[in-house]
Structures are given as C-alpha cells and as structure tokens.
C-alpha cells in the first residue's frame, strides 16, 4: 500500500484559530507564514525551509483580499521553491464573487480576473458557500481545482445542540436554498421572508403567517452578514408578529462598519457565525468540514 504524501498547513497571520482546528481534525502538521513589512510598505514572506514533496495548504480567508492575495501568491511560490509538490489554499470566504457580469461599460468583471490570478499560483482552492449567482460552479472561472462546500450541515448540528424547538426563517428569497437544507437535516419548520430592497440600507420584508408556530424559537439564517441591514430588518419583523427574539446565524461574518451594532440593536436573542472569517461572533467551527475534504485534494 502506498504511503500518503506529507501535508503541511501554513497559517496566514490572523488565521491561527481556523488553522489549529484544521490541524486538530486532520492530523496534519501546522506551521506559519511569516510576514515582514519594510518601511516602504513592501512585504517579505517566509515559509518553512523544508517542504520537499509536501502538499502545502495555505490557510487564509479572503475578506479584505487586496493585501492578502498578493501575500498568498508570494507564499505559494516560496513553498514551491522549498520543494512542495502541490500547493493549495483553504479560504472559507472567497472574495470578488459579486462582480460576475459587466453591469456598465468599462467595468471589470472582477470575479473572472481574480479567478485567473489565484489559479495562476495554486493547484487547488477549497472554500465554503461562495456567492454563485450567475455561475453554476467555480470551475466556470477557476482553472485550478476549485471545490466549494456547504456550511449548512455545521449550522444544522449547531442548531440541534443549541436551540430548543427551532423555527428556521430565511431573510429573503435567496436564502431559501440554505433554509430548506438545514430544515430537512434537523426536521424543523421553516419560513422565508419576502424582501423589497429600496437601497443598500433600506430593506423591507414581510413574514408569512406563523400564528401556529409561536411556541418555537425563531432562527434567522443567511450566508453573508455584510451591512446586516437585511438581517436586522428581519429581526424586527419577527418580533412585530409576536414571535420570540430570534437567534441570528451567518456563514460569513463580514460585519462591515457599524453592521454588528445595527444587528445587535434590532433585538436578537443571540448572534452566532461560522469561523469562515475571524470575528467575536464565531461559534460554529468549519474545521471538521474542511478537514474532511482536504485528503482528496492533497493526495491528487
């Protein structure tokens, strides 16, 4: 029987918690990418000096991507120079998926440009619930091996442990796919709010009849918590129809600007997120999910 090739996880600065979870659940060795900044703003990247015949997995979520991306490409090149046979990236949050079409003349289709950039330096990419709106799969734009996982099993397991008699509620029609998947996994009722957006910060929703479900604990689920206005409006609507204060769950806790304060002020019972992006609200660990998918990518 052929012995598996060694795999090494390399944590980018600030990504240690997720990397440690990956190491714990996969059994892979863990080291760090070291970043030094020169006075002129340029960066020097360092990886372990001995990576011969290893599969090297860079661990870094891609929120605030502009600086991170360049650093990761430097680290990928350095790993190959140190003998790595395969280099991949675990990025639970994948940036630049919003601009998937040219909305106005002259605009860059940044999702395609970014995919070409990452693919140029990586053998594989592993991510979670990317914003696939007009694309059916990442393979439409990524030429490296690109695999995306769903966080819904992790959310379902957390709800099963933490919430008694849940009623799952999606804040908009787009969230229906995730709500239905979680509801099916835990056997809970669900509803989806109807949303009308009048601007980035002006969102109105309505909640289908839930009179028979007042004894349940509402659980709001969305993939990306960015401005959090949609979720905050949903919390208010849930309370307005007489339901208990809801639990708010998100896969990717971006929480731009005052988003967390806005959501907290709307009156939820609890706010929790996956650790796809480091944030104080992280309570749902994606490490086991990601670790399960890594062997097939590393041993290719």
Structure overview:
It contains 8 helices and 16 strands. The protein is an alpha/beta fold. It has a 6-stranded parallel β-sheet with strand order 2-1-5-6-7-8, sandwiched between helices. It has a 6-stranded parallel β-sheet with strand order 10-9-13-14-15-16, with helices on both faces. Strand 1 (7-11), helix 1 (16-26) and strand 2 (29-32) form a beta-alpha-beta unit. The two termini are 16 Å apart.
Overall pLDDT, averaged?
Answer: 92
Order of helices and strands: EHEEEEHEHEEHEHEEEEHEHEEH
- Quickly give the structural class: alpha/beta
Q: Helicity, in percent?
A: 25-40%
The largest sheet, given as strand count, sense and whether it forms a barrel, is: 6 strands, parallel
- With helices defined by DSSP (H or I, 4 residues minimum), what is the helix count? 8
Query: Which stretches are poorly predicted, pLDDT < 50 over at least 5 residues?
Result: none
Distance N to C terminus: 16 Å
Overall radius of gyration? 20 Å
Give a count of the beta strands, DSSP E runs of length 2 or more: 16
**Envelope shape:** globular
Strand order of the largest sheet: 2-1-5-6-7-8
Q: What proportion of the residues form beta strands (DSSP E)?
A: 25-35%
């Amino acid at each position: 029987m052929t012995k598996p090739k060694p795999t090494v996880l390399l944590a980018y600065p600030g990504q240690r918690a997720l990397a440690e979870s990956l190491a714990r659940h996969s059994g892979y060795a863990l080291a760090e990418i070291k970043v030094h900044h020169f006075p002129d703003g340029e960066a020097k990247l360092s990886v372990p000096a001995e990576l011969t015949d290893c599969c090297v997995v860079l661990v870094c979520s891609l929120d605030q991507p502009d600086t991170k991306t360049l650093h990761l490409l430097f680290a990928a090149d350095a790993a190959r120079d140190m003998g790595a046979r395969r280099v991949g990236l675990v990025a639970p949050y994948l940036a630049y998926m919003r601009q998937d079409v040219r909305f106005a003349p002259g605009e860059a289709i940044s999702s395609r440009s970014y995919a070409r950039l990452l693919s140029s330096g990586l053998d594989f990419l592993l991510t979670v619930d990317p914003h696939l709106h007009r694309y059916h799969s990442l393979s439409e734009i990524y030429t490296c091996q690109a695999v995306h996982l769903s966080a819904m099993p992790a959310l379902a397991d957390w709800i099963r442990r933490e919430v008694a008699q849940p009623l799952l509620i999606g804040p908009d029609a787009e969230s229906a796919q995730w709500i239905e998947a979680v509801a099916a996994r835990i056997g809970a009722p669900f509803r989806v709010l109807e949303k009308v957006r009048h601007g980035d910060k002006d969102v109105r929703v309505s909640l289908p009849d839930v009179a028979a479900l007042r004894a349940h604990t509402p659980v709001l689920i969305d993939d990306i918590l960015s401005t959090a206005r949609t979720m905050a409006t949903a919390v208010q609507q849930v309370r307005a129809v007489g339901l208990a204060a809801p639990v708010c769950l998100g896969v990717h806790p971006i929480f731009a600007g005052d988003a967390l304060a806005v959501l907290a002020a709307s009156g939820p019972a609890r706010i929790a997120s996956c650790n796809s992006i480091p944030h104080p609200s992280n309570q749902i660990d994606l490490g086991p999910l990601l670790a399960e998918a890594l062997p097939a990518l590393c041993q290719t």
